Each structure stands twice: as C-alpha cells, then as structure tokens.
Amino acid sequence: MEKEILRIMGQQTMAPHPEYLSLLDKVASLSTDVLGAGVRLEALAQERKGLESTTRQLLLHDTVMSELTRRRTDADAIYNVLLNRAHQLRVLTSNEIPPYNFAIVDPPRLPKFKDIKKPPYVLIVLFLPFICAFNSVMVVLFVDYWDNSVRYAEEVEELLGLPVLGEIPSWTHRKTTRSFSSQDPDSRQST
Predict the structure, then answer these.
(1) 8 Å CB contact between 164 and 157
(2) Phi-psi region of 167 (alpha: psi -120 to 50; beta: other; left: phi over 0)
(3) Per-residue confidence band for 89, with pLDDT thresholds at 50, 70 and 90
(4) pTM for this entry
(5) What mean pLDDT is predicted for residues 73-102?
(6) What is the spatial distance between Cα 48 and Cα 42, in angstroms, rounded to a whole number?
(7) Positive or negative CA dihedral for 174, 175, 177, 180?
(8) Buried b (16+ CB within 10 A) or exposed e, 38-62
(9) Which residues of 150-181 are buried (b: 16+ CB within 10 A; e: fewer)?
(10) Residues 6+ apart with CB under 8 A from 65
(11) Per-residue pLDDT tens over the stretch 99-156
(12) Going by C-beta distance under 8 Å and a sequence separation of 6 or more, which residues neighbour residue 47?
C-alpha cells in the first residue's frame, strides 16, 4: 500500500514534502501498532479462555475437596463413637462386679386401711353453717366495696362538681296501701 501511494505521489510531484514523509512514517508505524494490538488481543483472549477453564476446574476440585472433607469428619466422628463403645464394652465385660451395686435395706411399709383415720364428720357438720354464713357475708362486703357505681344524687354532685337538677326515682309497690312510693326516704309521697 505504501508503494502504491509513493508511486501515485511520485507521478504528481517530483520531490515529496517533508510533512508528507513524516505522515507516511506515522501511517506505517500506526498500521504496525494496529497489527501488534490485534495479535495481543488474540493472545489475551486465548489466555482468558485458558484461565476460565482453569478456574472452572479449580471450583470443581474445591467442591469435591469440601465434600471429601465433610465425609472424612463424619467418618472420624462415627469411628470415635464406635471406639468409645468398644472400650466401654471391654470395661464392662472385664469387671466381675455388675455395674449396679445396690441392695434393699428395709422392705417398704404399705399403709393398711385400718391405719387411715376418718375425718371428724360431727365437727364438720357443726361448723359448716357458720363457715358458709361467714363466706356469704364476706362476698357481699367484697362486692359492695368494689362496686363503683353512683347511687345517690349527692354522689353525682361530689364527683362532677355540678348541681343536679333532678333524679329519676325508682318505684316500688306497697301491698298494704296500694300506692307507689320512692325508695329514698326523704322523697316519699303517698297518693
């Protein structure tokens, strides 16, 4: 290619220009650099392929090695267990004394039905009504103590701090006079 360029240029001009010659040198050096870079790229690609295959093989070897190591540790653990059991069996069979060494000192004393005392039914029957009455009074007092409902208008005035204008009376029926009256003793009215 350079010869062809020189031939064409030589026909047009007799003496080549120095810049033209320097450009031709640069083109020649760049073309050799491009060829060298292509060769280097091919070499690097081949080296990369070789390294990738090597790493794949190393990964396979690594997984195989880890599997073999795990199997070896499992086999060692099983071997140690079996060795310990064999040693224990040798110790047990070599002893003339059995592995347990105990004797019954006293025979057990089982209770007889005539030894069991009956509870005092008379005392239970006598005290049971008193205990029931006491418990019922305590339950009523307990419920009254824990009751937090409001019963009277005065309690509402104390809690709210507001005057109460009226209240709803609860009416009960008297059998003797046949009239209705309020439960509050201050507001009783007969009809």
Answers:
(1) yes
(2) beta
(3) confident
(4) 0.29
(5) 84
(6) 10
(7) positive
(8) eeeeeeeeeeeeeeeeeeeeeeeee
(9) eeeeeeeeeeeeeeeeeeeeeeeeeeeeeeeb
(10) none
(11) 566 777 788 887 777 767 788 888 899 999 999 999 999 999 999 888 888 777 888 8
(12) none
Amino acid letter for position 130 = F
Cα separation, 91 vs 93, in Å, equals 6
- Map tokens 């499992």 to a residue: 74
Among the listed residues 166, 173, 174, 170, the one whose alpha carbon sits nearest the alpha carbon of residue 184? 170
The secondary structure element, H or E, covering residue 181 is strand 180-182
Q: What is the pLDDT of residue 103?
A: 73
Q: What is the pLDDT of residue 69?
A: 94
